[in-house]
Amino acid sequence: MRRRTHEANNQRRPNARRTNNSYNERPSGSIPAASIWLPLLTQRLGIKTKRQQEVFLVACLAILLSVWFLTPFSDYCTKLILWTVPVQSDVTLGREALTSLEHKYPPVADRWGVKNIGLELVKSSIMSDSTNKNDLFDNIQQYKWDFGVVHAPQLVNAFALPGGIVRVTDALLKNLALTNDELAALIGHEMGHVLHRHSQKRAVKNRLLSTIWEAFVYEDNDGYDESFGEAVAEGLWKSASYLGELSFSRTDEYQADDAAWDLLASTYSFGRSSARQYHPKSVRRLLRKLWEYQGGTGSTSWESTHPGTKDRIGALEEKW
Hints:
Elements: H1 2-24, H2 34-44, H3 50-70, H4 73-83, H5 87-104, E1 107-108, H6 114-127, E2 146-150, E3 158-161, E4 165-169, H7 170-176, H8 180-195, H9 198-206, H10 208-217, H11 228-236, H12 250-265, H13 282-293, H14 301-305, H15 309-319
Parallel strand pairs: 2-4
Antiparallel strand pairs: 1-2, 3-4
Helix pairs in contact: 4-9, 6-8, 8-12, 8-13, 10-11, 13-15
């Protein structure tokens, strides 16, 4: 009896060894299929039937989507990714995006002083009192600021491209008849989008997982080992053609309004007098003029990319 049992054990051992070998032959680093790990996970959680597993998966997906869309989690992830991308990459990306933008909306002569006002705001933000300077302006000199006007007869809008490029449509300038202070508020607002890197954030957030994956596996065979941030930047070049027409979120707009206020306030810096001073309250006047031009409906091209004009006016009235 013992001999028979011993022989039976010997017959079973090779089979067991083959099973172990087949498991060990799986490529290193491979991830077990869902058909393997899902039953194990649900079994540990006391989920037994297939119907319960389906309910579990739907619940997990609902939680993930809620966290993604209803909390700042996705913004934190996007901000962390862009933190690895050098500003110089923004400049290169912006020039690429400008080529596409000006192919659609060609540049025209700047009869409104957009360039001069923009450069004055850059200069005043650099020279402003350090005790009152917005931290956002610390690296403003790293950008290649470029201000101008483009021809778009039916488009009342302005564009903020990565790296310091700001373009205003001639239709906006003709139809709104802005004062110098209001034009400074408009330019300051677009500069705020640039400094907060809102275009890149929207592009990354729209395809976050693929951006991360592509950055990790990126290889262009140029003999240079790109950092993660540089790989993200090169991936963003794919979206350069439409960066100028991405819609900003309401949070983006509030941040750009705050930046515009601080940029205009920098022209009133302590201990010095700017060649030209622009009152910060012009930001609110600009938004009112835009809202009136829209007929109080928020249905224009400006509102399509810069949402929440009416609410932002209220926020400025409460804050200042």
